[in-house]
Amino acid sequence: MIKKLPSGRWQVDIQPGGRGQKRVRKSFDSKAEALRFERWAMSQHDSGANIPQLKSDRRKLLEILETWYLAHGKYLRDGERRYRQLKRIAESFRNPIAAKVTANDYLVYRAVRIQDGISPKTCNNDLGYLNAVFNELHRTGEIIYSNPFGKIRPIKIQEREMGYLDQEQIRAIFTELRLRTTNPHAILVARLSLETGARWSEAEGLTIDRLKPYRVTYDQTKSGKKRSVPISKELYETIKKHLEHYGSFGAPLYVLFGEPSIAPVSSCPRGSVRTF
Question: At 93, phi and psi to the nearest 5?
Answer without folding.
Answer: -75, -5
